[in-house]
Amino acid sequence: MKVMLRKDAKGILSAYIPKKDLEEPIVSMEQADMWGGVVTLANGWRLELPQMGPETALPITVEARRLGE
Questions:
Q1: pTM as predicted
Q2: The domain that contains 44 carries what CATH number?
Q3: What is d(CA 24, CA 13) in angstroms, rounded to the nearest whole number?
Q4: pLDDT digits (tens, 9 = 90+) for 3-14
Q5: What range defines the domain where residue 35 resides?
Q6: Which residues contact 44 (CB under 8 A, 6 or more apart)?
């Protein structure tokens, strides 16, 4: 699914899923760098993000996979 990742003025990461018109903050990451790992949203959804470099600028739209559907 398409997911837009962004960081707000306070530095909080969030994910927006246009198909569901859903925006939720990212509350945890399985590893220090979110790229190529799994993040958990405030609503409990877990998303596997693609592998990208740590210098990747936000906001960005990526193809992510929802786990545990």
A1: 0.90
A2: 2.40.50.240
A3: 9
A4: 999 999 999 999
A5: 2-67
A6: none
